[in-house]
Specification:
heterodimer, A: seven-stranded parallel beta sheet, 13 helices, about 40% helix, EryCIII-like_C (chain A), Glycosyltransferase_28 (chain A)
């Protein structure tokens, strides 16, 4: 039996896919501990989870709503992921001391996990929770790529092994990506130890008190959600969405997630909830309108539900493009779309003749075949317990072609 | 709705001699950008040299790819948009204006005229 330390940033979307993997490993008799933000991890993983606390930036990831595009990218690395790694590093070191993991599983954006594990000589595996950072979006912007590598090299000098090389976002031992080939298209993967396991669909604790009986069996049901990280940016969009859904109200029932409580009175027939049990709800809806967060997108596709995507920033425009290219949804402009355009987009994906539903179902089948948390756990156990000592990833140069 | 931004006008421009005149280039690029933005409901945007790609037009990388394709149709090999972007630092990309792209196009066209 082996010990796995999961290192995660204080971002729900990055933690969620690993919850099912942790459960799967524990079910096989392995030990899992977490390093991150204790209150958050305990809330998501349960009180019995073993958690080593790491220092965290005050207030989490807070950005002005209008910050998007390359400016958001700059902010994300310079003002969040890099300081986060510096803050988390001592906690990761302490967790390795206390827990003695065989493998460190580190989120792609909790770079401290990769760099500290590398310095400590513990094999580390990258957990990639978005399909966007597998495709090198910076390929056409070499100076931007060099800027990021400069930041990461400086960070490695502070918290890692300065003599090491390689991009800490892509462990040479393995990259486990919670996405699928049908979404990525023909993209080349970072290296041969990149495992596309599909989304990690695992039951989550339902604290939402959702009124299931209010769902209308006679209308198509459309879920509108902007995810967990965009409370500040979504009021205009949600308002337009409510108007669009009201316009379609004779044949569509809207279910709108409004965690910030920014919507006032809404027309009758539209359900507005601060939280929803998303996975369970996805079995009962016909379309999802969202911001293109990778988890929501993959969970929708896993259930064969087509999408209208209004990407805000970060990986979302890339994920949206992947969904459109796969034929499973349409894209609208987050800051510009009005009720009329949004309503038309919803009707487009609901119309069976458009093929969006069929494409989503096809991707869903491929996701299920990829194995999700079971495959992820298989790969992690392979690395923790190699068949022969010679196969141990730490003992060979993984960058070299074999 | 103006009359200068329809697809057929772009086709006509394509057949016209390509002038390395900054005002003409600005008008051409503004037409391409309006066409690109039309599908997002931003067809009435005023586009000047000072217009920024990100803050003002809210273009995303996928839009830049589209623009690159449209520019290639219009200018052929005389203008290399990808090389222009590739030479920019992150802060330059964040602050990129239409005027900077106009200047790049004008310089590229003049270079091929000289050559």
């Amino acid at each position: 039996m082996s010990r796995f330390l999961f290192v995660v940033p204080p971002l729900v979307g990055h933690i969620n896919p690993l919850l099912g993997v942790a459960e799967e490993l524990a079910g096989r008799g392995h030990e899992v501990a977490w390093a991150g933000y204790p209150e958050q991890i305990t809330r998501l993983a349960g009180d019995e989870a073993t958690v080593f606390g790491c220092d965290m930036p005050d207030g989490g990831l807070v950005r002005p709503p209008q910050l998007a595009g390359p400016a958001a990218f700059k902010f994300l690395w310079e003002e969040f992921f890099l300081p986060l790694a510096d803050l988390m590093a001592p906690g990761v070191d302490a967790a390795i001391d206390a827990f003695g993991p065989d493998v460190v599983v580190t989120d792609q954006h909790a770079v401290a996990g990769a760099l500290v594990a590398e310095r400590r000589g513990v094999p580390h595996v990258t957990s990639a929770t978005t399909s966007a950072e597998l495709i090198d979006p910076l390929a056409g912007m070499p100076k931007v790529g060099a800027w990021l590598q400069g930041l990461l090299t400086g960070l490695r000098g502070r918290i890692g092994d300065p003599s090491a090389t390689g991009d800490p976002r892509f462990s040479p031992h393995a990259v486990i990506a919670f996405t699928g080939r049908d979404l990525l298209g023909g993209t080349e993967l970072p290296h041969e130890r990149t495992y596309l396991v599909g989304p990690a669909i695992a039951p989550r604790v339902d604290r939402s008190d959702f009124p299931w009986s209010a769902l209308d069996p006679d209308r198509k049901r459309v879920l509108v959600s902007l995810g967990t990280a965009n409370l500040d940016a979504g009021t205009r969009f949600l308002t337009e969405a409510v108007t669009a859904l009201d316009g379609l109200g004779d044949r569509v029932q809207g279910i709108v997630v409004d965690p910030g409580g920014t919507l006032g009175e809404v027309p009758p027939g539209i359900l507005v909830r601060p939280y929803v049990p998303q996975l369970e709800l996805l079995t009962k809806v016909d379309a999802v309108v969202c911001h293109g967060g990778h988890n929501t997108v993959c969970e929708s596709l896993w259930h064969g539900v087509p999408l209208v995507i209004a990407p805000i920033r970060d990986d979302q425009p890339i994920v949206a493009g992947q969904v459109v290219d796969a034929g499973a949804g349409v894209r609208v402009r987050f800051t510009r779309v009005d009720a009329a355009r949004l309503g038309a987009a919803i009707e487009t994906v609901l119309d069976p003749s458009g093929g969006h539903r069929a494409a989503a179902e096809s991707i869903g089948r491929s996701f299920r075949a990829a194995g999700g948390v079971v495959t992820a756990a298989d790969r992690l156990v392979d690395i923790a317990e190699p068949a022969s000592p010679a196969a141990r990833p730490t003992d060979r140069q993984c960058e070299e072609p074999t | 709705m103006g009359t200068e931004t329809t697809g057929s006008t772009v086709d006509e421009l394509e057949r016209a001699p390509l002038a390395a005149d900054p005002d003409v280039v600005l008008a051409d690029l503004a037409g391409m950008l309006r066409e690109l933005l039309e599908e997002y409901g931003l067809d009435d945007a005023e586009i000047t040299r000072a217009t920024t790609f990100h803050d003002d037009l809210e273009l995303e990388s996928v839009d830049l790819v589209s623009l690159s394709g449209t520019m290639r149709e219009h200018y052929g090999d005389r203008v290399n948009f990808a090389a222009f972007i590739a030479d920019l630092e992150l802060d330059e990309i964040i602050a990129l204006t239409v005027g900077q792209l106009v200047d790049h196009v004008v310089a590229s066209l003049r270079a091929t005229e000289r050559g």
